[in-house]
Amino acid sequence: MSTLRVLHLGAPESLDPLAEAAETLTAERTFSIVSVETAAEAHEAYESQPFECLVVEPHAAVDVIDFIASIHETDPKLPILLFTHPDSVDLIGKALAAGATDYVPKTDAGTDYELLATRIETSISYAGEQNTADPWRQSTSAISQLYAVTNQSELSFEEKLDRALEVGAAELGYPVAYATRVEDRNLEILSVAGDHEGIEIGMTSELSENYCKLVVDNAEPVGINNAEAHDALAELSTYSELGLQCYVGAPIMLEDEVFGSLCFAGTEPRDPQLIEAQKLTVKTLAQWVGYELERSRREEELRRQIDRLEEFTNVVSHDLRNPLNVAQGRLELAQAECDSSHLETVVDAMDRMEDIIEDTLTLAREGQTVDDKEPVEIAELLDNCWDVIESEDAELRVVDEFTVHGDRNRLSHIFENLFRNAIEHSTPPVTIRVGLLNVMYTSTRADTGGTFGFFVEDDGPGVPEGRRESVFDAGETTRKDGTGFGLSIVKQIAEAHGWEVELTESFDGGARFEFTNVR
């Protein structure tokens, strides 16, 4: 009886089920498994004794990609299996590109470790060989290429889908691949790779006449190695009209519902074990299609929102402002002809309307994500903002000098609005301070992740705790002549930079705005 020596990097509790699964795998081989938790321990174990396979199970304490790359560089022939959840598409792609031999899907099913044990034995059997018929190598190649497609951000979803089908068909060895959408129990073909006269983009058919019915109804991958051998399958038009003998399909999920299916098919029967192995790869491809579809829809909805926002700003900027300008002109003529206290009220109302228009436009424009950022010296920016405020009853103290990356013009709106807010809501004189956050004294304790925080605070009356969230709502104000947009603009611009902002209390009892996740 031979022994397979396996090094397992992962959580220690994963060792027992793997060992138990290995015992039931075969009577001819036993597994000798060494399990460690850190990359350093794995390197030490690897250098101290020979291993025939390495299993990497990602967890927070390990840089998986760096570890796999270092081991692969040292021993390119050592089988390295990544044992992780199928939805970790990005991690899987990077691991395969770094040198992992294959990945094994980790799900909630009870057969995970049996499959892992099988893959360990298979990978060792194929170590050092180049066998293109090996389904595990097909899986590795297909997913690795899929990751390359994912990184091509300039491609549309439709273009990525076409390439994913081409990759899958080529690597898995099927003459035709297609993606479908299901609606009202009808099947529509969205994309096709390969050549089959009966399968074309835009074609529709009843779901009940397709192999895809099994995929959609069960929301699970389906493999058919020889449809002719099964009476129920042979009656379906997929076989009787299209002549598809073998088929592997998996559900495309969108918002936890089956959107359609990803299918690979051929006109000749196939080995059932090969079909069964390829179901895992097709499932991964289908999951990726679902992720890309969901992202594409979010981007499309965002574009629609931006279009509506631009339409709104045009209406406010032109269609509303033009009649207001006419009214202001007529008001000036009326003031020249007569002296009435009622006209002063009209002037105040129109000035307020002008302020609301300006703040509304600012709110609409400044909330968009900041793409082009530049280093901005805060001390210089604050000086410029303070010059705009022009208040003799307020003092600005810059506690710390620091640099942020952002849009200088939009950042000016943050500080100008905060300065005005402090001055207008305080009894003079008021002192405003700006400085870096000390993480020991901030109201949140999140890991910085390479970012930092700063504060803007005053010694005014502050904001009651119950109103500290609502003050950021558009239109929220306690002043009769205020528009209520100032702090909403502050929040929008901060979030457009990827920052977070929170209102709390300063040491003097005034308002303290804390900005975190700043770069």
UniProtKB/TrEMBL annotation:
Top enzyme class, one word, equals transferase
Q: Which residues form the Histidine kinase domain?
A: 315-519
One Pfam family named in its UniProt record: HisKA
Record has Phosphoprotein as a keyword: yes
The keyword Phosphoprotein belongs to this UniProt entry's keyword annotation:
yes
- On the tree of life, the source organism's domain of life is Archaea
Give EC number(s), comma-separated: 2.7.13.3
The entry's keywords: Kinase, Phosphoprotein, Transferase, Two-component regulatory system
Annotated ranges, domain Response regulatory: 8-121
GO MF annotations, alphabetized: phosphorelay sensor kinase activity
Q: Which reaction does it catalyse?
A: ATP + protein L-histidine = ADP + protein N-phospho-L-histidine
Cross-referenced InterPro entries, in alphabetical order? CheY-like_superfamily, GAF, GAF-like_dom_sf, HATPase_C_sf, HATPase_dom, His_kinase_dom, HisK_dim/P_dom, HisK_dim/P_sf
Show the PANTHER family listed in the entry.
HISTIDINE KINASE 1, TWO-COMPONENT HISTIDINE KINASE
| Protein name, as recorded | histidine kinase
Supply the source organism for this entry: Halonotius terrestris
